[in-house]
TrEMBL record:
Residues 24-257 form the ABC transporter domain. It comes from the Bacteria. Residues 336-357 are annotated as: Disordered. This is ATP-binding cassette domain-containing protein. Residues 342-351 have a biased composition (Low complexity). Keywords: ATP-binding, Nucleotide-binding, Transport. InterPro entries: AAA+_ATPase, ABC_transporter-like_ATP-bd, ABC_transporter_ATP-binding, P-loop_NTPase.
Amino acid sequence: MYAIRVEKLRKEFKVQRSREGLKGAFRDLFRREYTLVRAVKDISFAIPQGEICGYIGENGAGKSTTIKMLTGILVPTSGELRVNGFVPYKDREKFVRGIGVVFGQRSQLWWDIGVIESFRLLRKVYRVPEADFNKRLNELVERLQLQDILNRPVRKLSLGQRMRCELAAALLHNPSIVFLDEPTIGLDIVVKSEIREFLKEMNREHGTTILLTTHDLQDIEALCSRVIMLDDGRIIYDGGLEELKSTWGKGKEIVFQFGSPVPLSQLEMLTPDMPVRWSVNAEGSASVWIPRQGDAVAVSDVLSRVVGRFDIRDMKILEPNTDDIVREIYRVGSAEAGGAGPAETGGTPAGREAMRA
Ligand SMILES: Nc1ncnc2c1ncn2[C@@H]1O[C@H](COP(=O)(O)OP(=O)(O)OP(=O)(O)O)[C@@H](O)[C@H]1O
């Protein structure tokens, strides 16, 4: 059973164009000119119940537009979509009772009244029975540590406190799907990790499906087994995070700190049969670059050649950084989009092969 199913979903915006100069402005009075902005270009994907899926892409890629269609705020130009079995923009009243939404940069709480009053109002909006509400509220208050802030007006809360309240507000009616748009934006590291832990627990215990939009790749690393990546309104990757890293990660680097400087030639002699690249840095430090190449060389193989030969004082392994990987995919994805057009490259192994080529 899919929680979210999207088939050739498209959204175009008609944007009024203003002509230049006084003459242009005068003409505009009589006949407006429009340009068509294609924000989402025939995307397809399906998310099973209980999955946490990252929905990522650069600014303007089309993420918010998709989320707005999935939550019933926008009507698609064409294509099919079902969320919890509903067509979001049609069955709004029934539909919203099964979903929760958090927009990190916008509040769904009333600014001047106590947090608990907002929660009570939301209970009425979502028509949650009193007993269910109390049970759920107690759970959320405890998990998100809201005890001391329940009676404060939202405007007096810190950003971290407000975000915890936003999450509670979105989950009070126990929705089976939650849309999170930048839920950790602007928060400090401690609050970020508390929120990630909380989301993981919700997902584990209640099987909540989560679609997470974020620019923070650590959110993705901590939460998502799957990522869908958008570029210019198209899906350029849909698959596992690990696969994403192993396919696009460029390799690993081991940095050694030796007791005394080791000449480059001696290091190179250790690995003549390996496609690795040594370099010598200042003050007895040296690094070896291990290219990905289908993991032909394991880090442990390289290490075993070095250990015991030289006096190693310290060592660190630099793993591929997800940020770099994503940038690389954007680069390739965008380049393709500029050519014949990748259309539906996401989701299928063939599509991903096409991208690798
Ligand atoms: N109401 C609108 N009218 C006209 N164009 C719009 C409208 N909403 C979005 N767009 C355009 O559609 C494209 C996709 O925008 P969208 O907000 O979905 O991107 P995004 O991936 O969410 O970006 P961000 O990370 O900055 O939030 C952009 O070119 C944007 O300018």
